[in-house]
Every structure is written in structure tokens, then in C-alpha cells.
Amino acid sequence: MVFINNTRSIEKNVGRSALLEDFRNSHLPNLTLQDLTRHIVEFSQDQHGSRFIQQKLERATDEEKQLVFNEVIGHAYQLMTDVFGNYVIQKFFEFGTTQQKQALAQTIRGSVLDLALQMYGCRVIQKALESIPADLQKEIVRELDGHVLNCVKDQNGNHVVQKCIECIEPSALQFIINAFQGQVHSLSTHPYGCRVIQRILEHCNPEQTASILQELHTHTEALVQDQYGNYVVQHVLEHGRPEDKTKIIRMVRGKVLDLSQHKFASNVVERCITQAMRSERSMLIEEVCNYPESALYTMMKDQYANYVVQKMIEVAESQQRKLLLVRIRPHVNALRRFTYGKHILAKLDKYMNTGTKSSTAPITTTILTSSPLSANSVNNATNNPGLNVNSSPLPTSCGLNKSNDSAAEMSANIDSSDSSTDIASNTNSNSFEITDKKY
């Protein structure tokens, strides 16, 4: 046994078989699955042994798979909850025969809740739900009835609930919807609950989501200012029905200045601008343009609100973009002194010069040297066909980036580059869905 600082054991060979020792010491380069007879469970619970079995199972014959399976099935629960063994079970759900997958699924029954809340077992449950027939899926998920909120608020269990929603037909998930009644606000402001709410809105039928949305709309103003709730509101804006988007935008109207200066609510204001209907977007931009100049200046140099102004410049139609330019013009020199102000000027350079190939001077230089423009002259001007309405690309997903896995555990999973890693890494998957460059 080797110790670091006399306290932390990093290697333990007590109880290891001679076969496993020889394998770990690279003395058996031609080892096969047949050679592991009566040692499958031991190898599965070893970092290097587990990786070896996983690799072999991907290309194994049915006979070889059955040889391994015969030893695994009697120790299935033990391996499902093991740091390295869980990967071997996952491989069987991925590459095993239909009979082997169903037999393993039967061993899960009666232990679904315990496995769902366990760090490694939750991954096996997720992989099983992706791989087994609908009737077995329903049998497994029924064991969570009465324990939904416990699972949703658990760092492991929430992933299982999400996977249930993604893989199982909505009619079998009504008990999850029922558990959320009266809990939507508290779950939307929960680091794990907010994810599950989003999965429900994505995958459940309109009759089921109606009650969720009704509760959400009751608490929209509070949710947009919450570090987790704002992601749920953004999700509705991006994927929801037009009438639900409109309700959120109505709440934001009249509060753009205040909400734009809020770390979390500013994300929602941006999403409103990009997802609003044309008339709604115009009203939001006009609200900003009609502010006193000092208010717009405050937004442009604010660490959060400046992104709202940038977004308006991006998606505004020609006339509105010109009006924004007029409102910004008096502040050009001052904005150059602020990091966020420079971002505003860069946006104007990009979008106001679009389609004017002969222009070589930045628009901010033009603003300073050209004759004054009035708001009325802008409003009466004809549209410039060279000014395009540009919407920004959808943001990529973000994660908590908190993993409970050790380096050794992660290296035991051979699927480090594919989608199965998300399941194996547990807390790295999914998260709050929308990345914001402010953070």
C-alpha cells in the first residue's frame, strides 16, 4: 500500500487475484474474455479491468457476451453501484442482446429509488431507460411515484427524472406532473428542479404543461430575477407557445431599464428581444429610445444592461437602428472610456456599415463628423435596403461543471468522447441550458 502524506491511499492490492495483478502489470498482452472466467466481477470493479471488459464487449460475439453476462447477472446491483463496475453494466445495456438487457432491467426492479439516488446507480438507470422496451420503462418509472420531489432535488436523482421525461411517453408520466402542482415556483428556483421543469416543457403534452405554465406566469417577475428561475423563463421564451411568450413580454414592458441592470433578469430581457414578435420587439426598443438620454447612457455603461442595448442593435429593423444611433450619438466620446461602451460602438460599426462597401471610416467617426440628425428625421427617413436585420445565433448549452468523479473513474469509462459521457459524468450534463457571456 502506497501513501501520500501518510494519509491518502492511492493504491491497494490487498485481495487482488494473481490474474488481475499480472494484467495490471502488463504481463498478459493477449488476454481474452474467456481467460477471465470466474474473475469477471473482480475485473469489473478494477479501473483497468473494467476498461478492458468494456472494450472487449463492443466487439464480442454473442457467446463471449453470454460468458461475461453469466458472472455479472448474479452481482448486478453490486456492480451498478460500483465506481468502475457501473460502466460494465452500461455496456451491456448498450451492446448486450435483447434478452440480456431485459434480464438486467428485471434486476433493477424493486431498487429503482435507491439506484436513482446513488452516484453510480443513477447512470445505469438512465442508460437502461434508453435501451429497454416501453413496457419495462413504465414498470421502472412507476417505482418513483411518491418520491418525485425527493429525486428532483437530488444531485443524482434529478438526472433520472429528466431521462424519464425524455424517454417515456407522456401518458405514463402524469404522476410527475401531479407532484409538481403548487411546487413550480420553488422547483424553478432550485438548481436541479429548474432543469426538470425545462424537460417537462419540452417533452410533455399541452394538457400536462398547461398547469406548469399557469404557475410560472403567476411568479414570472420573481423568476426572471432568480439565478435559476431566469433559465426557465428563457426556455419558455425560446420554445413556448406565442401566447406564453406574450405574457412574459408584457411583464417586461415598462421595466426594461430596471430589469436590464439585473444580473439574471437582463438575460430574460435579451431573450424577449430576440424571441418577440415584430410589434412586440418594436415596443421594447422604443421604450429604451424614449428614455431620457441619461437613462440610455446608464444602460450602455452598465455591466449587464449594455448587452441588452447590443442585442437591440443586432435585431432592430433599419429605422429603429437609426433611432438608436441618434440616441447614442451624444455619448460617443464618453462611451469610448468604458469597456462596455466600446462594445456598443463596435456593434454600431458592424451593423450600420452593413451593405456600404465604399465606407472605410468607422460609423462612430461618421457620427462625430456628420451633420446632426434629429429623431424626427430618422423616423421619416426611408428604409435603407443595405441595413439587414440580424439575429444572433442561439446560445450553446452550459453546465454546472461540477463533477463528483475522480480522474481514475473517468479514465475507466472508455466513452470519453461520445454522448454516453454525459450520463457517466452525471452533473456535467444538461444544466441550465442557456449560456450567458456576462458571467
From TrEMBL:
InterPro entries: ARM-like (IPR011989), ARM-type_fold (IPR016024), PUM-HD (IPR033133), Pumilio_RNA-bd (IPR033712), Pumilio_RNA-bd_rpt (IPR001313). Pfam families: PUF. The keyword Kinase does not apply. GO terms for molecular function: mRNA 3'-UTR binding. It is found in: Cytoplasm. Keywords: Cytoplasm, Repeat, RNA-binding. This is Pumilio-like protein 1-like protein. It comes from Sarcoptes scabiei (Itch mite).
